[in-house]
Write a structure and sequence with these properties.
123 residues; CBS-domain; 2 domains
Length: 123
């Protein structure tokens, strides 16, 4: 897929990570950071249009099984400095877990745990 088309797809779906597939196999992961890199000075518009997702995607990907405990996944991401992992189910992509997803989930848990909606003291 041409890079500008992938960028539009990501904007349309408001996502920051796009799996790059070869048939049913994930071969890479394109991020908004990769798109920014491709748009750095020195890239002409015609050169940008000539780039594909395969040219810019990250190919060293961390994969985890769908049933891997979340604490294990998050600790692994933190220790390895990874901001996204592919979640696999029977060798097929089930989803992508990002550090933003983890932060959002943790914030919701904190709100639910410490700021219950039925608490009259919460304004």
């Amino acid at each position: 897929m041409p890079l500008p088309e992938a960028a539009e797809l990501m904007r349309h779906h408001n996502c920051h990570h796009l799996p790059v597939m070869d048939g049913h196999s994930v071969v890479g992961l394109l991020t908004t950071e990769d798109l920014r890199l491709a748009q750095q000075p020195g890239q002409s518009l015609t050169e940008l249009a000539d780039l594909t997702v395969g040219d810019m995607c990250r190919r060293q990907l961390k994969q985890v099984d769908l049933h891997t405990r979340l604490d294990v996944v998050l600790l692994g991401m933190a220790e390895q400095g990874i901001n996204a992992v592919l979640v696999m189910r029977h060798d097929k992509l089930a989803g992508i877990l990002t550090s933003q997803d983890a932060c959002r989930g943790f914030a919701r848990w904190l709100q639910k745990e410490y700021l219950p909606s039925d608490d009259p003291g919460v304004a």
